[in-house]
Design goal:
Radius of gyration: 19 Å
Distance between the termini: 35 Å
Strand order of the largest sheet: 7-16-3-2-1-6-14-10-8-9
Number of domains: 1
Order of helices and strands: HEEHEEEEEEEEEEEEEEHH
Number of strands: 16
Largest sheet: 10 strands, antiparallel
Shape: globular
Number of helices: 4
Amino acid sequence: MFGVSCSRIKAVAAILAFWVGAGVVLPQSNASANFDRKGRPTRPFGSVCPYSHTSGDDPIVHPGMSSMAHSHDFFGNTSTDAFSTEFTLATAPTTCRLQSDRSAYWAPTLYDDGVAIRPIKAHAYYARRVAEEVEAPPFGLRIIAGDKKNVRFSCIVSGMPQRLGHMVRSCEGGMFTIGIKFPECWNGVDLDSADHKSHMAYAVNESCPASHPVAIPRLRLFLAYPAPSATAVLTLASGSLDTAHADFINAWNPGVVGEITGFCLNDIDPRNCAKRLPKFLREQDKAFGSRLESEA
């Protein structure tokens, strides 16, 4: 039910053809290692996606059923609703500064004493946290992530994070953030699962388990909000802060994210990412924008 069907493969092929038509270079294989001279994984790449909209939709848990979920704040793709799929997202507008990232990111609405806080933006960071090479995330991958172990709450004041509990001591002059760490090991077959989690797993000792052998970039999503009042008790539409979680549908341009994964996460020389990434993204965004204008 959740696997990659023949019709899905054909649809993905059509999307790939679209991106190639926009001048995108498809990823090349790379057998290099991925650690710098100190043994650390090479630098991550990221996408900054300002807040888009709020609704009671959830295209993963309640697909095709409008307003059936608790309130969610959406970032990135501006078209995300209950009927969204990776194919509708792929050619829809996005708030992300990288136009090649058409993904949908969302999380439960945050409240300050019962009043909704309008988010500022989401920072989506993709990094390699396993010893083996990583593959680009598969187009259409759906993930829900969030538990006490993989969620962090912080105030960012003058660039310095402070871990917080339910009571906000002080974020004055800064931002309140919720950080969610997504799993990086995929079973290699299913783009989703019945619980929207079991097709993915977290790495153990920098290695993916045999049940989920395909390593992909680890997504860490940081949601940024204006500083709440110093005495506020924060809650979420899903309940207390203990229920914090986030959702993701991958609608990255497959060629672009594959290429970036290669030279940022799988290249033995981490300097190549810094050298190539800015120019590469400018070229791809310009090509994609021209393609959309010609299709209009």
